[in-house]
Structure formats: structure tokens, C-alpha cells
Amino acid sequence: MTIILAVWCGLFGLAIGSFLNVVIWRVPRGESVVRPPSHCPGCDSEIAKRDNIPVVSWILLGGRCRNCGTRISLRYPAVELLTGALFAVIALKIGAHIELVAYLWLAAVGVALAAIDLDLHRLPDSLTLPSYLVGITVFAIAVAVDGDAWSLARAAIGMVALFAFYFAVVLAYPRGMGFGDVKLAGVLGLFLGWLGWDQLVVGAFLAFLIGGFVSIGLVMFGGAGRKTAVPFGPFMLVGAMIGIFAGSGIGSAYTSILSH
Question: What average pLDDT does the segment 42-55 reach?
Fold first, then answer.
């Protein structure tokens, strides 16, 4: 049953990934994600339905527009594949529970936010802020169904704690990150806290660990300097995903090491 759920979620994720490509391009520019329909940036022709099948159409077209031959970025199928993969593994992790809706939302929004932050060093409120409402609403419904009120309380604590921590970091060193990161931190604290303390701590810590390693690598091998701006949102999201999938195991292993 769980495998079937994961397959269906994966296929659904491919379709969502196709829509996310529109979101990634249009939302930062203040454009509607509904109208006009998807079109080629080269010849402005509307993309036919047969050419809008996730991943498959890109392969069949050789990564080019059918009408004018303009190259279609590899990012498009990459976003679709990443979203599909995340949806599938999240379904395997969470299972057929109401919380699955919230974590699929987080995966979709996370992919879009990471891509936008990499491109423009921005985390749009139109994507981040609704995630608070989605998470709190879905978790409240889960509590009404299962009666586990402590999970919701822990999620609220995680939300406030991570928001406050990032807010303090921004006040102390405003050039290091922005308030978009602060608002995203609250969202991630909410979703990680629902799962457990280990997930919360591991997910939060790994954002800085991964960010540090990548920054050092960019300085050593990528020609970056001390003043080079590196978006932190993708590190936060990667750390959170690792926390969701492996936070409990990492936390238990760390505790075991300390006890010996």
C-alpha cells in the first residue's frame, strides 16, 4: 500500500514540478502563474499539451522548442524529476496520514524557493507565508483525528524557536542573511518540530554545516571572496529535508556516542 502511494505521489510530483517551473519564473516577477499559458520565450508561441508532459516532452524534443528551436534549459526536467522524487520518498516516510499533505506542500514550495533564491537571492513571501497556514491547519486536523496535541505544541515551539534564532542572527549580522531567511526558518521549525526534537535540531544545525562547507568550497575552488553573496535558503531547505528523513537516526547516533 505504501509503495503504491509513493508511486502515485511521485507521478503527481512530476506534474507539480512542471507547474513549479512556471512559479519559479513568474512569481519573482509579479506575474500570474495562470495566465497566459506556458509559452516559448524565444518565439512566444503557446506550448502545446503534447509538449508539456513532464520530462518526457523535453527528451522527445531534444531540449528545444518545437517551433523555433530555442533551447529549453535542463533545469525544467531537473525540477520535475526532483519534485517527483521528493514526493515519492516523502510518501514512503510519512505514509498514508493527513500530515503527508503538509510535507508534500513543503517539498513543492521548497523546490521553488531554493531555485528562486539561487537565481535572485530572494525568498518571496507569497510562497513562504502561506506555508505557516498550511502547516498549522493540517497539523491541527491531524491532532483532531489522532489526539496527539503534544506534537502540535512541539511544532509551535520549533516554529517560534527557529524564527527567534534566525531573527537574532540577522540583527547581529544583517549582511549574512535577510528577513526572508527568518520567515523561512519559522516554517521549517514548524514542520521539523512536528516530527520531533531530533529532527528539529539536526535540520537546523545541518543548514549551517552544509552552508559552511559549500562556502569554503566556493572560496577555495570557485573564485569566491569574503564579500561574495551566497543565498542561504537552499542550505536551510536541504538541512530540513535531511532532518525530516534522517534526523531521528542522526540524533540517536549522536546521543549514543556521547553516552560512551
Answer: 82
